[in-house]
Hints:
Blueprint: H1 2-13, H2 18-32, H3 40-44, H4 53-81, H5 83-101, H6 107-135, H7 141-169, H8 172-192, H9 218-234, H10 240-247, H11 253-278, H12 284-301, H13 308-336, H14 343-372, H15 374-398
Helix pairs in contact: 1-11, 2-7, 2-8, 4-5, 4-6, 4-14, 5-6, 5-8, 6-14, 7-11, 7-13, 9-14, 9-15, 11-13, 12-13, 12-15, 14-15
Transmembrane segments: 21-44, 56-74, 81-101, 107-125, 146-167, 173-193, 219-238, 258-277, 284-304, 310-335, 347-370, 376-395
Subcellular location: Cell membrane
Domain Major facilitator superfamily (MFS) profile: 19-399
Amino acid sequence: MLKATALTYRNAYSGLSRSTWLLSLVMLINRSGTMVVPFMTLYLTSPEMGYSIGKAGYVLGLFGLGAFTGAWCGGKLTDRIGHYPVQLITLIGGGILFIILGQLRTFPLICVFTFLVSFVGEAFRPANSTAIAFYSKPENRTRSYALNRLAINVGWALGSALGGVLAKINYELLFWVDGFTNISAAVLLWLALKPSVQTADSSKKEEVRPLIAAYRDKTYILFILITMLFAACFFQIFTNLPVFFREELHLSEPGIGFLMAFNGIIIALVEMVLVYKLEGKRNIMYYIAAGVSLVSIAFWLLNIPGPPMLIAFLMILVITFGEILSMPFMNAYWISRTHPTNRGQYAALYTMAWAAAQTLGPMSGAQLAGYAGFNTLWWVVGGLAAAAAGGFYLIRHRS
């Protein structure tokens, strides 16, 4: 039994190109330094900075705007000059901007550089997504994206944990570490992944779709709109859900931290193996719709009476498997609709959908929870996620 399990895990990670592993390592290093964003509100409202929660909200709003516009520009640049230079430029530029931002004290300059940091940082994402498609094969593309997601989740967990320690010492350290991890990721990319490798485009070995602008692909635009709806629901897990756990279920901060870590642990242990077992077996949209349906059920579980920790644990378990089923195959879907020369456009729209949802979803959810209570919020969010699942199912037939 143990031997069979070990063989399954080995097979799940085998067959991926060296370049795919390097790109995931670059993402791991980059995300391990992601510690400014989770602590930005605490930093701005700290006695040292002295800004109000309202002003901190403006700064976070500009961060969301920068992410949205940066994704669009990053996609355009990727199609024009290639994914390799865009990744190098954005990693180095983002690192420098983070260090500068940590030295600023006046509110207007903080606003300007927060926008720039987010703009440059999010421009990296379409280029990185396009690079993964470039260096992977059609038969292991979903696993290649799953490996990248694993790097993001592990990096985020490490960055958040280290960020909490550094913030207690000095908030300015967060900006220095975030800056140097960006630059370190750029150095690794430059040393280990040469641009000359791109002369052999793997996409030539697969069926290539006719060239069409992403903005004119009506089915894809529908997919993006539904993805934005789903993402707005999903982002409640990192914003309004912890508040609910503390205020309504009366869980402690360590308990909430354990639940959030549990999400990452399951992803690390299960996602690659599950994707390996499912990839190529059924229509991609079947898995996406099933995963989003699980997310819907997870939010509705929060309104069931019972022992608080059990309800919270069950909810995190269900939503994590919903995430594992849906998100790797979402990446596989948008790649399946691309031509080698327009992948930046498709990647940009996909990244923009998540960036917009990250801003609008938590903000709208907080307003609804404040006005009508958390129970109403979870019924509504679950209902919207169920509608998104239905939308993905309809796309399955349309595709």
